[in-house]
Amino acid sequence: GPPHDLKTFCISSENMSVVVDDDYDKIFFCPPYYDLELYGGSDEQSTNLYSTYSNWLDGYWRKTVDECNKVLKSGGLFCFVMGRFIRGYMMGADMMSIAKERFELLDEIKILPPLETTRGLTEMEKYEICYIMRKVDE
């Protein structure tokens, strides 16, 4: 069989420990760009739940980081993709600051932006960063 098991689930990331156990080696995802990327089909989107950027950072992102910390094994990797400056927000730095409360930064890798067009693309830097972090034992 394959050398790794892959588990997927569909639940809000700020509530993942409700259905996800605590045996993950790695978590990799691309969180929403606050109100830049909106997805249909759910009233539970983070932009519907948190009306301001600062509330979104605290209610969505900080809770997501805490949840990732709960489900990762000791030394597990937490990776996310985000641009640095989006629509007037220093989103990458803001999210990194919160992530550093639980994780140690190992590397930042510059990657090409997605090919699909997003609202406000001209206001975002032309690349994204993959932040690679390790769980810090408490």
Give the SSE order as H and E letters.
EHHEHEE
State mean pLDDT (0 to 100 scale).
81
Instruction: Tell me which oligomeric state these chains represent.
Output: single chain
Distance between the termini: 35 Å
Number of helices: 3
Radius of gyration in whole Å, from Cα?
15 Å
**Biggest beta-sheet profile:** 4 strands, mixed
Give a count of the beta strands, DSSP E runs of length 2 or more. Answer: 4
Polypeptide structure, described:
- With 138 residues, the protein is of the alpha+beta class.
- The chain is built from 3 helices and 4 strands, in the order βααβαββ.
- It has a 4-stranded mixed beta sheet.
- The longest helix is centred in the middle third of the chain and has 19 residues.
- It is globular.
- The termini are far apart.
- The mean pLDDT is 81.
Give short descriptive properties of this protein.
138 residues, 4-stranded mixed beta sheet, alpha+beta, 4 strands
